[in-house]
Amino acid sequence: MGWHEVLGHDAQIERFRRSLAGGRLASAFLFIGPDGIGKQFFARKLTQALFCEVRPEQECDPCGECPSCQQVMADTHPDLHFVDLVPGTGEIRTAQIVGGSFTIDKREEVFRGACYEINLKPIVAKRKVVIINQADSLNATSTANLLKTLEEPPPGAVLILLGTSLSQQLDTIISRCQVVSFQSLLPEQVQQILLQQRILESAGDALELAMIANGSVGLARKYNEGNLLEVRRELLDLLSNLPEQTERLDEFLSGFVDVKKLARNEKYDRIEFLASIVISCFHQLVLILTGQELTGDQVLVQASRKMADVWEGDVETALACIDRTLETRFHALANANVKTLVGAWVDDLGQIWLTGGFKVPT
Ligand SMILES: [Zn+2]
């Protein structure tokens, strides 16, 4: 299983094919692109291409099956060093980069550090490869030490940093790395991966999930684990049956967001999720009202058509609902009380609907 497992990043594969065929591989790369689109998988595939025992690296076409290829995927290859966030902390500790120790789950973990590992002589392969996942979260000390390594890279070694945006990286890092940009996947590509990885069985569900995950398999997986597809369907159903259901909408939204065990940022993520659904529904309504073609998945399209059937307002009223929802998202970020915030949001939407949008129920 070679590169064909990688979906949607053909230009990037071609770029590495050319540089490896010409024997011109750089020593440091910065992969930039949204979370969950396969940058880490790509970095491992590239490492397979460098380590494969069957096909020489000039071919840049790993077999995917030899012991080295398998070890790269299983993260057990002695010449691949992988750095990731410390579980539950959202950070990469300095010790992981420069060496040292810290406690994880009451156990003292000792690290030699990525800067040390990359300087070791390779054991099985011809090169050492270090991949640093979530490089956006590197702290100043770690970055300063990485810079020293990048100034004099050990011969043959390859360092790959994975980040989401150039704005999160220091100019000094960017200037010492070859930047490779990755784009979000198409919904059909996310759908294909969700089905291949058996995250979902139904092609329809997979496409629906793909459409709301903004081209990110990681986000789709997260939404699926939280059963968010169901939440979205229920919310769209409520929206398409308004304004009779404002009370139920308030209950539903508050019930989903104002959960005791959720941390503050998790509540915000939920508001963000709900707001994006409400916005996309009103956006479809605007498209209908202005005679444009609809762009959403079937569930969204059906809900907005149903909404349009009872809508008597104009485009401005629909846009006002979008504005009010954007405002809620903004206030949620500013640490507002969640229950009050959601209540006011639904009240205001109801007011806008009743004064300018829907027929008043009799
Ligand atoms: Zn191989």
Summary keywords:
362 residues, alpha/beta, Rossmann fold, five-stranded parallel sheet, 16 helices, 7 strands, 9% strand, disordered C terminus, binds zinc ion
Overview of the molecule:
By secondary structure, the protein is an alpha/beta fold. The protein folds into 2 domains: 3-181, P-loop containing nucleotide triphosphate hydrolases (Rossmann fold), CATH 3.40.50; 226-357. The chain is built from 16 helices and 7 strands. It has helices at residues 10-21, 39-51, 67-74, 94-98, 114-117, 140-151, 171-176, 187-196, 203-212, 217-225, 228-240, 246-257, 264-289, 298-310, 315-333, 338-357; strands at residues 28-32, 80-83, 100-104, 107-111, 129-132, 158-163, 178-181. A 5-stranded parallel beta sheet has the order 2-5-6-1-7. Helix 11 (228-240) packs parallel to helix 14. The longest helix is centred in the last third of the chain and has 26 residues, at 264-289. It is elongated and about 70 Å long. The protein binds zinc ion (ZN). Residues 52-54, 62-63, 66, 68-69 line the site of zinc ion. Zinc ion (ZN) binds at residues 52-54, 62-63, 66, 68-69.
In which order are the strands of the major sheet placed? 2-5-6-1-7
**Number of helical runs?**
16
CATH architecture annotation name of the largest domain? 3-Layer(aba) Sandwich
Q: What is the average per-residue confidence, as pLDDT, rounded to a whole number?
A: 90
- The percentage helix is 40-55%
Order of helices and strands: HEHHEHEEHEHEHEHHHHHHHHH
Total tally of structural domains:
2
CATH class of the largest domain: Alpha Beta
Question: Which regions have little confidence, pLDDT < 50, spanning 5+ residues?
Answer: 358-362
How far the N terminus sits from the C terminus, by CA atoms, comes to 63 Å
**Main beta sheet, described?**
5 strands, parallel
Structural class: alpha/beta
Question: How many beta strands in the DSSP annotation?
Answer: 7
The coarse silhouette is elongated
CATH topology description of the largest domain: Rossmann fold
Rg measurement, Å: 25 Å
